[in-house]
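stage 2 :: seqdesign
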C-alpha cells in the first residue's frame, strides 16, 4: 500500500499522483476521472492509502482515458478516431463517437461501427441518436427509444 496526498484545488478534491511525465507543468490528479491539471496553490487536506490493485486501475485509466480531442471532456475510455474523422495523436470519447456514428449513418448511410466490441449503444427511433443502452427503453420489434424522447412524448400526451 502506498500513501498519496489528497489535494483541494478550486474546491475540488484530487488524489495527487505526481507530475505528468510528458509535460511536467501538469500534475496527475485523480477525482474519479484521469485529470492532468496545473495545481498552482493547492491545500493538502489529508492522505489516501491505495492498494496496488487500486493504483493499477487508476493508472490504466490514464493510459486508456483522458481528454477527448473533440469535445474536451475527460473520459475513462478513449479510442483512436474512425476513418472519416482522423486526427493524428487524438483520441475520441464514446459520446463523440456515437454522435459521429449517427451523423455518418444519416448523411451518407455508412455506419462507423460500435465504440467498443461490447458497446450496448442503440439508435433511438425518434431522435436517431446513438444512446448508451442503459438510457434506452425497449419498444416492440427490437427498436429503442431514449429516455428524453420518451419523456417528451409523455409530456405531449398529458
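stage 2 :: out
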Amino acid at each position: 500500500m502506498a500513501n498519496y496526498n489528497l489535494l483541494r484545488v478550486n474546491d475540488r478534491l484530487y488524489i495527487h499522483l505526481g507530475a505528468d511525465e510528458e509535460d511536467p507543468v501538469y500534475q496527475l490528479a485523480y477525482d474519479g476521472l484521469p485529470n492532468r491539471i496545473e495545481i498552482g496553490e493547492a491545500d493538502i487536506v489529508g492522505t489516501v492509502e491505495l492498494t496496488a490493485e487500486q493504483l493499477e486501475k487508476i493508472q490504466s485509466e490514464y493510459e486508456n482515458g483522458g481528454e477527448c480531442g473533440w469535445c474536451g471532456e475527460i473520459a475513462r475510455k478513449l479510442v483512436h478516431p474512425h476513418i472519416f474523422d482522423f486526427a493524428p495523436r487524438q483520441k475520441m470519447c464514446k459520446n463523440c463517437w456515437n454522435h459521429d456514428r449517427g451523423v455518418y449513418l444519416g448523411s451518407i448511410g455508412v455506419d462507423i461501427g460500435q465504440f467498443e466490441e461490447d458497446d450496448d449503444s442503440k439508435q433511438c427511433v425518434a431522435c436517431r441518436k446513438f444512446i448508451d443502452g442503459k438510457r434506452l427503453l425497449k419498444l416492440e420489434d427490437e427498436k429503442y427509444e431514449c429516455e428524453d424522447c420518451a419523456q417528451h412524448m409523455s409530456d405531449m400526451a398529458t
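stage 3 :: structure notes
- The chain has a mean pLDDT of 85.
- Residues 68-114 form one domain.
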